[in-house]
């Protein structure tokens, strides 16, 4: 009889916090201020956009925290949708994330980190492609070891990335000489100036990624307790960091200069504070930050593929756990290979591919937020409601409703601005149906 190998429950609250913070905070916190400012039209409205996006994200995290506490399974969003709406909807959720979004976003992050690294080292831009491959291989190798190694690396990189964030906030607050509030952007309206709604949309995309914590629930020591805490505290810290850095930059530089500098605004603040050393130190901090984000993606996404394979909806080899490390080795290697292939052969298209997948993912987010109402109603009907022992989203039903309306706003805005991309996204989702029917028949999945 073959020995049953299970995922190792070794991750606690600190690993959870590091995954939430480290996965969300990549490079966007250092580059998004000018874009949001242009759309919002003034520094006050830009800060309000970041805060509004943060409130919506926190409401979403509170909602998923309750769903996750009731359904503490490995697989995250796939497992939630599968439990709530059945295997077809669950499969399409995982299909879009594992086959399209995961390799695309990993390749995109690795490619951008590699480009910054090439600049930092004075190498030619063409060298960025092999640096990207090295970065992906590096995080794959870390994740093939015991999960505590990847979790430890996540804690380390998250701690390091918080240093430049704290410096930018501190310098802006205490040494900035510009009024952070009330500055107006005086410029000719362009296609980039989308208004307050578009500014909020940009912040919501910058806040995205926190839900990946749910993918590793099966490896947390106490997921019913630690998953909600990690989500809530982690998202709260991220919101504080985004709003804080934005306020610090607005307090240090006039808005017209921020718009003119675009992605170089935070570098200008760092160079003002510490000279050329500050700019290079910030570049290094961003590279480390992106490596942490890369590791978080590689830690989370293969667990979804593993859960789907366990349910008989993906190739069986993806459900294999290595006896020594107790991690889904084949799933990790497969996601890594797909990302490397994209990084090598589809460099110019990975950003667009990941953008296309986001619309479909937000459809499944919306469905998961409705899950709070479904699970509460079901528990009440069958008499199994144990709200005293489970995490309960506060201010119910306000929090899940805020999350739902925020998600609908994202979907509506995307449809209005990119109907072609939306159509491609939906087609990519539907392409998963024949694959689902094949594996359901092959493995006799009856659920």
Automatic annotation (TrEMBL):
The protein's GO terms of the molecular function aspect are: L-amino acid transmembrane transporter activity
Q: Which InterPro entries match?
A: AA/rel_permease1, AminoAcid_Transporter
Membrane topology field = Multi-pass membrane protein
One Pfam family here: AA_permease_2
User: Where does it reside?
Assistant: Membrane
Which keywords does this chain's UniProt record carry? Membrane, Transmembrane, Transmembrane helix
Any GO CC annotation of this UniProt entry: membrane
Transmembrane stretches, start-end: 12-31, 43-65, 98-122, 128-145, 152-174, 194-218, 230-250, 281-306, 327-347, 353-375, 395-413, 419-439
Please report the name of this protein according to its UniProt entry: Amino acid permease
Report the source organism: Weissella muntiaci
